[in-house]
Amino acid sequence: MAKIIGGITTSHIPAIGRAISLNIEETPYWKPFFDGYPPIRKWLGEKKPDVVVLFYNDHGLEFFLNKKPTFSIGVAPQYISADEGWGIATIPPVTGETELSWHICNTLVEDEFDITICQEMKVDHGLTVPLQLMWPGNTYGHIKVIPVCINCEQHPMPSLKRCFNLGRSIAKAIESFDKDLNVVVFGTGGLSHQLDGQRAGFINKPFDLMCMDKIVNQPEELFQYSVRDLVEQAGAQGPELNMWMGMRGVLSGKVTELHRNYHIPISNTGAGTMLLENN
Ligand code: DHB
Ligand code: FE
Protein backbone atom coordinates (compact mmCIF):
# COMPACT_ATOMS: atom_id res chain seq x y z
CA MET A 1 0.00 0.00 0.00
CA ALA A 2 1.12 3.56 -0.60
CA LYS A 3 2.16 5.40 2.55
CA ILE A 4 1.93 9.12 3.43
CA ILE A 5 5.18 9.87 5.20
CA GLY A 6 4.99 13.60 5.83
CA GLY A 7 4.18 17.12 4.75
CA ILE A 8 6.32 20.10 3.80
CA THR A 9 5.30 23.73 3.47
CA THR A 10 7.17 26.43 1.62
CA SER A 11 6.54 29.79 -0.02
CA HIS A 12 6.90 29.66 -3.81
CA ILE A 13 7.93 33.22 -4.71
CA PRO A 14 9.38 33.68 -8.24
CA ALA A 15 12.29 35.72 -6.83
CA ILE A 16 13.46 32.52 -5.06
CA GLY A 17 13.84 30.82 -8.44
CA ARG A 18 15.79 33.80 -9.65
CA ALA A 19 18.06 33.76 -6.57
CA ILE A 20 18.76 30.06 -7.19
CA SER A 21 19.65 30.66 -10.83
CA LEU A 22 21.90 33.61 -9.91
CA ASN A 23 23.55 31.54 -7.15
CA ILE A 24 23.06 34.25 -4.52
CA GLU A 25 21.62 32.03 -1.76
CA GLU A 26 24.45 32.94 0.66
CA THR A 27 24.08 36.72 0.34
CA PRO A 28 22.73 38.57 3.46
CA TYR A 29 19.25 39.08 2.03
CA TRP A 30 18.72 35.42 1.10
CA LYS A 31 20.73 33.44 3.66
CA PRO A 32 18.16 33.48 6.54
CA PHE A 33 15.57 32.17 4.11
CA PHE A 34 17.65 29.46 2.40
CA ASP A 35 18.99 28.33 5.83
CA GLY A 36 15.50 26.92 6.43
CA TYR A 37 15.95 24.15 3.85
CA PRO A 38 18.96 21.88 4.67
CA PRO A 39 17.10 19.96 7.46
CA ILE A 40 14.24 19.26 5.05
CA ARG A 41 16.61 18.20 2.27
CA LYS A 42 18.33 15.84 4.72
CA TRP A 43 14.98 14.30 5.73
CA LEU A 44 14.01 13.86 2.06
CA GLY A 45 17.41 12.26 1.40
CA GLU A 46 16.81 9.76 4.22
CA LYS A 47 13.13 9.00 3.52
CA LYS A 48 13.52 8.84 -0.27
CA PRO A 49 9.90 9.53 -1.28
CA ASP A 50 8.73 8.15 -4.63
CA VAL A 51 5.90 10.62 -5.17
CA VAL A 52 5.14 14.23 -4.24
CA VAL A 53 1.50 15.34 -4.09
CA LEU A 54 2.03 19.04 -4.61
CA PHE A 55 -0.66 21.60 -3.72
CA TYR A 56 -0.08 24.87 -5.57
CA ASN A 57 -1.99 27.59 -7.35
CA ASP A 58 -1.66 28.58 -10.98
CA HIS A 59 -1.07 32.34 -11.13
CA GLY A 60 -2.42 32.78 -14.66
CA LEU A 61 -0.12 30.63 -16.80
CA GLU A 62 -2.41 27.65 -17.51
CA PHE A 63 -5.67 29.00 -16.06
CA PHE A 64 -6.23 32.69 -16.64
CA LEU A 65 -9.28 34.65 -15.48
CA ASN A 66 -11.29 33.44 -18.49
CA LYS A 67 -11.37 29.85 -17.16
CA LYS A 68 -10.64 29.09 -13.55
CA PRO A 69 -11.30 25.63 -12.12
CA THR A 70 -11.61 25.57 -8.32
CA PHE A 71 -9.62 22.31 -8.10
CA SER A 72 -7.57 20.72 -10.88
CA ILE A 73 -5.39 17.61 -10.81
CA GLY A 74 -2.60 16.73 -13.23
CA VAL A 75 -2.47 13.17 -14.60
CA ALA A 76 0.22 13.78 -17.24
CA PRO A 77 3.54 11.90 -17.56
CA GLN A 78 5.45 15.17 -17.68
CA TYR A 79 5.00 18.88 -16.96
CA ILE A 80 6.83 21.81 -18.54
CA SER A 81 7.26 25.15 -16.82
CA ALA A 82 6.65 27.96 -19.26
CA ASP A 83 7.66 31.63 -19.34
CA GLU A 84 5.53 33.66 -16.95
CA GLY A 85 7.33 36.90 -17.63
CA TRP A 86 9.17 36.85 -14.27
CA GLY A 87 12.54 36.18 -15.88
CA ILE A 88 13.03 32.81 -14.16
CA ALA A 89 15.68 30.69 -15.87
CA THR A 90 14.59 27.65 -17.88
CA ILE A 91 14.57 24.48 -15.77
CA PRO A 92 14.22 20.77 -16.60
CA PRO A 93 10.76 19.21 -17.03
CA VAL A 94 8.90 17.82 -14.02
CA THR A 95 8.16 14.07 -14.04
CA GLY A 96 4.48 13.19 -13.64
CA GLU A 97 2.72 10.15 -12.23
CA THR A 98 -0.22 8.68 -14.09
CA GLU A 99 -1.62 5.71 -12.12
CA LEU A 100 -1.95 7.15 -8.61
CA SER A 101 -3.09 10.46 -10.14
CA TRP A 102 -6.04 8.77 -11.87
CA HIS A 103 -6.81 6.82 -8.70
CA ILE A 104 -6.91 10.14 -6.80
CA CYS A 105 -9.21 11.63 -9.46
CA ASN A 106 -11.59 8.63 -9.26
CA THR A 107 -11.73 8.89 -5.47
CA LEU A 108 -12.30 12.65 -5.50
CA VAL A 109 -15.20 12.39 -7.95
CA GLU A 110 -16.72 9.54 -5.89
CA ASP A 111 -16.41 11.84 -2.86
CA GLU A 112 -18.34 14.56 -4.75
CA PHE A 113 -15.43 16.91 -5.50
CA ASP A 114 -15.84 18.53 -8.92
CA ILE A 115 -12.31 18.54 -10.27
CA THR A 116 -10.75 19.38 -13.62
CA ILE A 117 -8.59 16.47 -14.77
CA CYS A 118 -5.58 17.72 -16.74
CA GLN A 119 -3.81 15.41 -19.17
CA GLU A 120 -1.78 18.42 -20.30
CA MET A 121 -0.85 21.34 -18.10
CA LYS A 122 1.83 24.00 -18.06
CA VAL A 123 3.10 24.55 -14.52
CA ASP A 124 4.25 27.84 -13.00
CA HIS A 125 6.51 28.97 -10.15
CA GLY A 126 3.93 27.73 -7.62
CA LEU A 127 4.95 24.16 -8.49
CA THR A 128 8.52 24.51 -9.74
CA VAL A 129 10.14 26.77 -7.11
CA PRO A 130 9.33 24.33 -4.24
CA LEU A 131 10.91 21.45 -6.22
CA GLN A 132 14.00 23.57 -6.87
CA LEU A 133 14.23 24.37 -3.16
CA MET A 134 14.02 20.74 -2.04
CA TRP A 135 16.34 19.27 -4.70
CA PRO A 136 19.20 21.72 -5.33
CA GLY A 137 20.74 21.76 -8.78
CA ASN A 138 17.28 20.99 -10.22
CA THR A 139 17.77 17.28 -9.42
CA TYR A 140 14.04 16.59 -8.94
CA GLY A 141 13.63 14.52 -12.14
CA HIS A 142 13.49 11.15 -10.27
CA ILE A 143 10.51 12.27 -8.17
CA LYS A 144 7.03 11.71 -9.60
CA VAL A 145 4.88 14.76 -9.02
CA ILE A 146 1.08 14.91 -8.81
CA PRO A 147 0.00 18.56 -9.18
CA VAL A 148 -3.09 19.58 -7.21
CA CYS A 149 -4.04 23.11 -8.18
CA ILE A 150 -6.38 25.29 -6.09
CA ASN A 151 -7.90 28.57 -7.30
CA CYS A 152 -6.38 31.41 -5.25
CA GLU A 153 -6.59 34.10 -7.93
CA GLN A 154 -10.24 34.83 -8.62
CA HIS A 155 -13.18 34.98 -6.19
CA PRO A 156 -15.13 32.93 -5.25
CA MET A 157 -12.39 30.76 -3.74
CA PRO A 158 -12.89 27.57 -1.71
CA SER A 159 -12.80 27.69 2.10
CA LEU A 160 -10.00 26.35 4.30
CA LYS A 161 -12.35 23.58 5.44
CA ARG A 162 -13.13 22.50 1.90
CA CYS A 163 -9.43 22.37 1.00
CA PHE A 164 -8.72 20.37 4.17
CA ASN A 165 -11.47 17.91 3.16
CA LEU A 166 -10.03 17.71 -0.36
CA GLY A 167 -6.81 16.62 1.34
CA ARG A 168 -8.68 14.03 3.44
CA SER A 169 -10.13 12.51 0.30
CA ILE A 170 -6.71 12.46 -1.40
CA ALA A 171 -5.36 10.65 1.69
CA LYS A 172 -8.10 8.03 1.33
CA ALA A 173 -7.05 7.52 -2.30
CA ILE A 174 -3.34 7.21 -1.46
CA GLU A 175 -3.94 4.79 1.40
CA SER A 176 -6.07 2.53 -0.81
CA PHE A 177 -3.54 2.48 -3.68
CA ASP A 178 -2.12 -0.98 -4.11
CA LYS A 179 1.57 -0.18 -4.65
CA ASP A 180 4.39 0.28 -2.16
CA LEU A 181 5.05 3.98 -2.67
CA ASN A 182 6.26 6.56 -0.17
CA VAL A 183 4.31 9.76 -0.67
CA VAL A 184 5.23 13.20 0.65
CA VAL A 185 2.84 16.16 0.42
CA PHE A 186 3.82 19.76 -0.28
CA GLY A 187 1.68 22.77 0.68
CA THR A 188 3.12 25.72 -1.22
CA GLY A 189 2.49 29.47 -1.25
CA GLY A 190 1.72 31.89 1.56
CA LEU A 191 2.02 33.01 4.07
CA SER A 192 0.72 36.60 4.28
CA HIS A 193 1.27 38.77 1.23
CA GLN A 194 -0.42 41.30 -0.99
CA LEU A 195 1.10 42.02 -4.38
CA ASP A 196 -1.10 44.89 -5.57
CA GLY A 197 -3.41 47.72 -4.56
CA GLN A 198 -3.09 50.19 -1.70
CA ARG A 199 -1.90 47.57 0.78
CA ALA A 200 0.80 46.13 -1.54
CA GLY A 201 3.60 44.79 0.64
CA PHE A 202 1.26 44.05 3.57
CA ILE A 203 2.57 41.24 5.83
CA ASN A 204 1.02 40.06 9.14
CA LYS A 205 3.66 38.22 11.15
CA PRO A 206 1.50 37.43 14.25
CA PHE A 207 -1.19 35.92 12.01
CA ASP A 208 1.40 33.88 10.07
CA LEU A 209 2.94 32.50 13.27
CA MET A 210 -0.52 31.62 14.62
CA CYS A 211 -1.28 29.72 11.38
CA MET A 212 2.03 27.84 11.64
CA ASP A 213 1.22 26.85 15.24
CA LYS A 214 -2.34 25.75 14.45
CA ILE A 215 -1.49 23.80 11.30
CA VAL A 216 0.54 21.33 13.37
CA ASN A 217 -2.10 19.71 15.57
CA GLN A 218 -5.16 22.01 15.61
CA PRO A 219 -5.79 22.66 11.89
CA GLU A 220 -9.58 22.64 12.38
CA GLU A 221 -9.27 25.83 14.47
CA LEU A 222 -8.32 27.64 11.27
CA PHE A 223 -11.72 26.80 9.70
CA GLN A 224 -13.14 29.87 11.48
CA TYR A 225 -11.35 32.13 8.96
CA SER A 226 -13.35 32.76 5.79
CA VAL A 227 -11.62 33.66 2.53
CA ARG A 228 -12.64 37.26 3.24
CA ASP A 229 -11.02 37.07 6.69
CA LEU A 230 -7.85 35.72 5.08
CA VAL A 231 -7.73 38.64 2.64
CA GLU A 232 -8.17 41.07 5.56
CA GLN A 233 -5.70 39.37 7.90
CA ALA A 234 -3.12 38.06 5.44
CA GLY A 235 -3.47 40.21 2.32
CA ALA A 236 -5.06 39.66 -1.10
CA GLN A 237 -2.84 36.61 -1.66
CA GLY A 238 -3.39 35.32 1.91
CA PRO A 239 -5.85 32.67 0.61
CA GLU A 240 -2.75 30.74 -0.54
CA LEU A 241 -3.02 29.26 2.97
CA ASN A 242 -5.53 26.94 1.29
CA MET A 243 -2.63 24.91 -0.13
CA TRP A 244 -1.24 24.40 3.38
CA MET A 245 -4.65 23.21 4.53
CA GLY A 246 -4.92 20.78 1.60
CA MET A 247 -1.52 19.37 2.57
CA ARG A 248 -2.54 19.13 6.24
CA GLY A 249 -5.74 17.30 5.29
CA VAL A 250 -3.66 14.58 3.63
CA LEU A 251 -1.74 13.92 6.85
CA SER A 252 -3.26 11.94 9.69
CA GLY A 253 -4.74 13.38 12.89
CA LYS A 254 -1.46 13.78 14.76
CA VAL A 255 1.79 14.94 13.24
CA THR A 256 5.21 15.76 14.64
CA GLU A 257 6.79 19.08 13.74
CA LEU A 258 10.41 18.30 12.91
CA HIS A 259 11.47 21.72 11.65
CA ARG A 260 10.29 25.25 10.94
CA ASN A 261 11.63 28.55 9.67
CA TYR A 262 9.91 31.92 9.22
CA HIS A 263 11.50 34.92 7.59
CA ILE A 264 10.20 38.33 6.45
CA PRO A 265 10.19 39.78 3.98
CA ILE A 266 11.13 37.65 1.01
CA SER A 267 10.02 39.83 -1.85
CA ASN A 268 6.51 40.81 -0.62
CA THR A 269 5.85 37.72 1.44
CA GLY A 270 6.06 36.22 4.92
CA ALA A 271 8.03 33.09 4.03
CA GLY A 272 7.09 30.05 6.12
CA THR A 273 8.81 26.67 5.90
CA MET A 274 7.74 23.57 7.86
CA LEU A 275 8.47 19.84 7.98
CA LEU A 276 5.74 17.68 9.52
CA GLU A 277 6.16 13.94 9.95
CA ASN A 278 3.02 11.83 9.72
CA ASN A 279 2.34 9.73 12.82
C1 DHB B 1 5.28 36.77 -4.69
C2 DHB B 1 4.63 35.82 -3.89
C3 DHB B 1 3.85 34.84 -4.48
O1 DHB B 1 3.17 33.88 -3.77
C4 DHB B 1 3.70 34.78 -5.85
O2 DHB B 1 2.96 33.79 -6.37
C5 DHB B 1 4.33 35.73 -6.65
C6 DHB B 1 5.11 36.73 -6.08
C7 DHB B 1 6.14 37.83 -4.11
O3 DHB B 1 6.18 38.02 -2.88
O4 DHB B 1 6.85 38.49 -4.87
FE1 FE C 1 1.77 32.74 -5.10
TrEMBL record:
Q: Species lineage, top-down?
A: Bacteria, Pseudomonadati, Pseudomonadota, Gammaproteobacteria, Oceanospirillales
Which InterPro entries does the annotation name?
Xdiol_dOase_suB
Name under which the protein is recorded: Protocatechuate 4,5-dioxygenase beta subunit
- State any single GO MF term: oxidoreductase activity, acting on single donors with incorporation of molecular oxygen, incorporation of two atoms of oxygen
Domain Extradiol ring-cleavage dioxygenase class III enzyme subunit B: start-end pairs: 8-270
Q: Which UniProt keywords apply?
A: Dioxygenase, Oxidoreductase
Q: Which domain of life does the UniProt lineage start with?
A: Bacteria
Pfam families for this protein = LigB (PF02900)
Q: Which organism is it from?
A: Neptunomonas antarctica
